[in-house]
Design brief:
- The chain is an alpha+beta fold.
- Helices cover 21% and strands 18% of the residues.
- The chain has helices at residues 145-153, 175-187, 209-217, 237-249, 271-279, 299-310; strands at 2-5, 16-20, 31-35, 44-47, 56-63, 66-75, 78-88, 100-103, 161-162, 165-166.
- A five-stranded antiparallel β-sheet has the order 4-3-2-1-8, with no helix packed on it.
Length: 313
């Protein structure tokens, strides 16, 4: 278990937990997030973790009105695919105070491992490292921090506001924003699209008008309907799959016809695009076995997609 603790704050001691155990149940989930007291309905979130490589990274963002837990494959500063997230907004959020970080290893009900093997945790070092952060709303403990920083360093984003400098990671990506992201990803951060007359009826005078026309001229989009681009509509995860693969492989690219691996994409119009996106390691879905094709893409998710699709350092 990894947890916070304050000896001077009974009865719950400002305790927040990230724990790994099946709690004596062979088929139970092996991980959980807890806001104490654990027996209060809604204060415990159980889930299953499977390590895909050598490292995993776990943490939480604790604020006065919520606690956002996260678990990811990989190791800082190169976080990988999302394992789980949980947003707690219940009535037992600890108040601020003098807490410290702790770790424990204990036997459930005092019973040793049934296979007779020893179990141990080796702590090689403990340190506090301040990671560089560009955006005030994307600190180093935010799950997509590394991808957002890489997107910024590549010159593909300057954030959503400049004073203060913010990224707006939870905001939805619009089709206008997507045009800028993709065109810079394709042609480089120094691109300035030519000033051309709009061919879509709904983009004349729009701030992204020339970026949208450039995206169309590159063959990445033909709009959302006849004569329309819908610049301020949110980009769905299905649309994103098409945008990214065409931007990566060229306007004439067509994905192979493959069987669906996500249970919610079979028969979907973008099924093959989505499956190819997964095959290239750009997405692992939105949850176990799911892709959520009609869900909107957030700016944090888009940072991950763009970094992976264009191989940004």
């Amino acid at each position: 278990g990894l947890f916070t603790w304050d000896d001077d704050a009974p009865p719950y001691y400002r305790e927040l937990d990230i724990e790994f155990s099946r709690w004596g149940e062979d088929l139970a989930e092996n991980s959980q997030y807890v806001v104490q007291p654990h027996n209060q309905p809604g204060n415990r979130h159980r889930f299953y973790s499977m390590l895909m490589g050598v490292y995993s990274t776990h943490g939480f963002k604790w604020e006065k009105d919520k606690v956002d837990f996260f678990s990811n494959q990989g190791h800082v500063p190169s976080l990988g695919a999302e394992i789980e997230i949980w947003n707690y907004v219940g009535s037992n959020i600890p108040s601020g105070g003098a807490v410290n970080a702790r770790i424990n290893l204990w036997l459930f009900n005092g019973v040793p491992p049934s296979n007779g093997q020893k179990i141990e945790v080796v702590i090689e070092s403990f340190s506090h490292v301040s990671a560089p952060t560009t955006f005030g709303d994307a600190p180093s403990y935010y799950w997509a921090w590394d991808y957002i920083e890489r997107l910024y360093n590549a010159g593909i984003t300057g954030g959503c506001t400049t004073s203060p400098l913010m990224y707006c990671p939870e905001s939805q990506v619009t089709r206008a924003q997507m045009a800028v992201f993709l065109e810079k990803g394709i042609h480089g951060s120094g691109l300035t699209p030519p000033d051309v007359s709009p061919t879509f009826d709904d983009t004349a005078g729009h701030w992204a008008e020339d970026w949208i026309e450039a995206l169309k001229n590159d063959g990445i989009t033909s709009g959302c309907a006849t004569g329309l681009y819908c610049p301020d509509s949110a980009v769905t995860r299905a649309q994103m799959a098409v945008f990214l693969l065409k931007a990566k492989h060229g306007s004439s690219y067509a994905p192979p016809n493959v069987s669906a691996t996500f249970t919610d994409t079979a028969g979907h119009w973008a099924e093959d695009w989505i499956e190819q996106l997964a095959a290239e390691g750009i997405t692992s879905g939105c949850a176990a076995g799911l892709y959520c094709p009609e869900s909107p893409v957030t700016r944090a998710q888009m940072a991950v997609f763009l970094v992976k699709a264009f191989g940004l350092p």
